[in-house]
From TrEMBL:
This is DUF3040 domain-containing protein. The keyword Transmembrane applies. It comes from Streptomyces galilaeus. Keywords: Membrane, Transmembrane, Transmembrane helix. The keyword Transmembrane applies.
Length: 110
């Protein structure tokens, strides 16, 4: 099989593969850093959801507040199921699902 390399016909395939792997590692690391959430940030997200749920329940209706709380509970349940299916164990799966569900708070609060 004749491959076309950007460096020309005398390119080293192993060097090109290593550059590709290094670029993919850097890209994946940047994505992990972007979506990384720590427990204090997730706690802040949970508190924001609780405050928003109470506020909406008081201002509009308790049914609307229950819909918001139920939506986040459903998101947590789905994230927990995915974490358990990806071979995480008990508390590790719960912690990962908690971070996924409420870790967005860092994006909206300073």
């Amino acid at each position: 099989m004749d491959q076309q390399w950007p460096e020309g016909p005398n390119a080293d395939p192993d060097a090109a593969r290593e550059r590709y792997n290094a670029d993919m590692r850097a890209s994946r690391g940047a994505i992990r850093e972007l979506f990384r959430a720590e427990l204090p940030i997730a706690h802040r997200g949970l508190m924001l959801v609780a405050v928003a749920t109470v506020f909406v329940s008081v201002v509009w209706s308790p049914k609307t507040g229950a819909i918001i709380a139920g939506g986040f509970a459903a998101l947590f349940a789905v994230a927990l199921a995915v974490a358990l299916l990806s071979d995480r164990r008990r508390w590790g799966a719960a912690r990962a699902a908690y971070k996924v569900t409420f870790g967005w708070a860092d994006w909206i609060t300073p």
